[in-house]
Amino acid sequence: MIRLSHYNGNPYIGVYAAANEYVAFVPRDAPDSLIRDLTEALQVQVQRGTLSCTNLIGSLVSMNSYGAVVSNMATRAEVEYLSRFLPVFKIEDRVNASGNNLLVNDYGCVANPDLSHKSLKGVEETLLVDVIQASIAEHKTVGSTCVVTNKGVLCHPSTTHEEMLLLKDALKVPAAIGTLNYGAPLVGACIVANTKGAVVGNKSTPIELGRVEDALDLV
């Protein structure tokens, strides 16, 4: 199932919300319509909260079925709250916007090339996957450049054939290219998805939604 939605009028919902197979996190002021769309499309429990005392949850957390990685700016209370649902690793790194800098599913992870070895080890131990470092479409922020589930990965339209093969090998799912929100190339910022469905920014076109269906195997 695919739903068009927004965060208080903003179609870049991947910046503000994040989900895995079981739970989604949204800001405290998320509209009821977004919570309803996430609940119905992804078949998850939706939790309200903050990260680093901001609403930018999608940019600041990366998670799969096994754990979550958060920015080192997350407060103790926020980490304790997330820990009720998943093991949590707090990145102590200059590159710490985890949602932007990690692209992860249950099979693998692609990370910003600037992340330290110490951070990568913590990511591997928390998310229980192997991590490789790479840029995609000349962007180091691979989590905003692409979106991945346990069925597929949708990539920035400038992703090369070689990069798509790298993603397929690292994440163990097929890769495809597309845009969202009427031509926005940073697709990870425009969508929240899992294997059961996707919630997509409401500026997205029918052709773009078709690419999501195909890439993430949601037909």
How would you sum up this structure, described in words?
This protein is of the alpha/beta class and 219 residues long. The chain has one domain (2-215): L-arginine/glycine Amidinotransferase, Chain A (5-stranded Propeller), CATH 3.75.10. Helix content is 28%, strand content 23%. The chain has a three-stranded mixed beta sheet with strand order 1-15-14, sandwiched between helices. It is globular. The chain starts with a strand and ends with a helix.
Task: Outline the fold blueprint.
Elements: E1 2-5, E2 18-19, E3 23-27, H1 32-42, E4 45-49, H2 57-60, E5 61-63, E6 68-70, H3 76-82, E7 88-90, H4 98-101, E8 102-104, E9 109-111, H5 117-127, E10 131-133, H6 142-145, E11 147-148, E12 153-155, H7 161-171, E13 175-177, E14 191-194, E15 197-201, H8 206-215
Parallel strand pairs: 1-15, 3-4, 6-7, 9-10, 12-13
Antiparallel strand pairs: 2-3, 5-6, 8-9, 11-12, 14-15
